[in-house]
Amino acid sequence: MKKCPNCGALMKSNVNFCTKxxxxxxxxxxxxxxxxxxxxxSHQIKGQSNSxxxxxxNQAKPNAANNEQAQESQFQxxxxxxxxxxxxxxxxxxxxxxxxxxxxxxxxxxxSAVIGESWYGWATILLxxxxxxLGFYFCLKSVANxxxxxxxxxxxxxxxxIRVLLFALLFEATIIGGYYAGHYFIYGKTxxxxxxxxxxxxxxNFNLILSSLVFIVLVLGPGNGTFVSVVLFIIxxxxxxxxxxxxxxxxxxxxxxxxxxxxxxxxxxxxxVLILLIAVIIFFSILYNSMHQSILxxxxxxxx
Length: 304
Fold this sequence. Notes:
Blueprint (H helix, E strand, L loop, with lengths): L1 E2 L6 E2 L18 H24 L1 H5 L3 H12 L6 H28 L11 H27 L3 H38 L5 H11 L2 H15 L4 H24 L9 H46 L1
Antiparallel strand pairs: 1-2
Protein name: Zinc-ribbon domain-containing protein
Pfam family, one: Zn_ribbon_3
Organism: Lactobacillus panisapium
């Protein structure tokens, strides 16, 4: 067994990260911890025996000593808000440090089974999408300002960014759901959707670096469309391959043929993507018509 040095939780000997606080447990020696635990138990037993022997002596002490202790306890102050803030900031630092360590491990060994917090996978997907979509928002706003219609386009762009973010998350959830269904069909059991997402994102987490690169390029200007298109294609391919390998490359005995699971995954993804594409086309046609009418109205108002 391993004892987490951060929160004190007991983990199995083969666990590399604490499942409660995410602390790194790889450098902890099991044998030294077991010896420490035994010594603590022996001291605890001795303390209990000594307390039993000295119980009568403690009862025989004057009541004045108890009164002094009561008076001293009155002067003890509760922890201040400053200490609480320091504790919260320390916990936040540990959380960020553990997440960054998880990201570094994913870049060094993408397909290694690293245990992380349940929110790591979904938070990383959301961060990737936000970086890309905000990059397009600032790029479009810069172009609109150049034509003198930045105020109008900015309002529609903000609404469009939120909706495109939702469409992107739905599209990625479609891929995840399809491969998760195929994984369940092949092996008959899973470790849960959260663990599946964490492993898939861990395998494709180079996307976090590429999404940051796309954001920087788009903010600098709209003249790098070809480069951005190539990087976006790589991001999509890595995301797709990461979950495909997670679904089909499980290191356990399958109960059904993997090829059928692969086909089932793609059928689910294909149907869901077609429905999503129809919704996206309808949305962008409505958004384009609204923007076109608003721009024309502003031009005619200026001429009149």
